[in-house]
Design a protein that fits this description.
With 153 residues, the protein is an alpha+beta fold. It has one domain. The chain is 38% helix and 20% strand. It contains three helices and seven strands; from the N terminus they run ββαααβββββ. The strands form two sheets. Strands 3-4-5-6-7 form a five-stranded antiparallel β-sheet, with no helix packed on it. A two-stranded antiparallel ribbon has the order 1-2. A hairpin with a 7-residue loop joins strand 1 and strand 2. Helix 2 runs antiparallel to helix 3. The longest helix is centred in the first third of the chain and has 27 residues. The chain starts with a strand and ends in a 6-residue tail after the last strand.
Length: 153
C-alpha cells in the first residue's frame, strides 16, 4: 500500500494485489445484494409502469403530492420502490468504501488503483471471479485486461 501526492491532488491510495483480493469476499456479498435489489426494482418498476404509475424522480422523495394520490396498492408499491432504491444506494456506498472504483454496476465490475514499475495501473475484478486475476492500463479498460502474473509484486 502506498500513497503519493500529485500537484493539486489529494492523497491517493494505491492497492496491492493482496489488499484488493482481501476485499473480494465482501464485494461478492455486496454485489449479490445489488443484483437482487436491481432485479426486484426492475420487476416492481414494470408492475407500476403497467398500472400506469411508473416511478418518477419526485416519487422517490417523501413529500406532499400535488395531485390526487394513486390507489393504496400503488402507494404501497411506490413506498417499497423507494425503500429498495435506498437499500441499493447503501450497497453502492458500501462497495465504494472498499476503495475500489465501480466501473459497471450491472455486471459488478470494479477497479483499484495500483502501481506497477512506478506507473499507475488498475487492478480489475468482475463479479463471479474468484479473485483479482487481471489488471489493465488506465486507458485500455476491460478490453485490455491482462493477467496479474505479469505484475511484479
Amino acid at each position: 500500500m502506498g500513497y503519493t501526492r500529485g500537484v493539486g491532488e489529494a492523497d491517493k491510495r494505491f492497492f496491492t494485489l493482496d489488499e484488493a483480493n482481501g476485499e473480494v469476499t465482501r464485494l461478492r456479498d455486496l454485489f449479490t445484494a445489488v443484483m437482487q435489489l436491481r432485479g426486484q426494482l426492475k420487476a416492481l418498476y414494470q408492475r407500476l409502469d403497467a398500472a400506469g404509475h411508473p416511478p418518477r424522480e419526485e416519487d422517490l422523495q417523501d413529500g406532499e403530492e400535488d395531485s390526487e394520490p394513486p390507489p393504496a396498492e400503488i402507494q404501497r408499491d411506490l413506498a417499497r420502490f423507494r425503500g429498495l432504491v435506498e437499500a441499493l444506494r447503501e450497497q453502492i456506498e458500501a462497495i465504494q468504501e472498499t476503495g475500489c472504483v465501480i466501473k459497471d454496476i450491472e455486471v459488478g465490475l470494479v477497479d483499484w488503483p495500483a502501481l506497477h514499475q512506478g506507473r499507475e495501473v488498475l487492478l480489475c475484478w468482475k463479479y463471479g471471479e474468484a479473485e483479482v486475476s487481471f489488471w489493465h492500463e488506465l486507458d485500455t479498460g476491460f478490453a485490455g485486461r491482462r493477467p496479474v502474473s505479469e505484475l511484479d509484486e
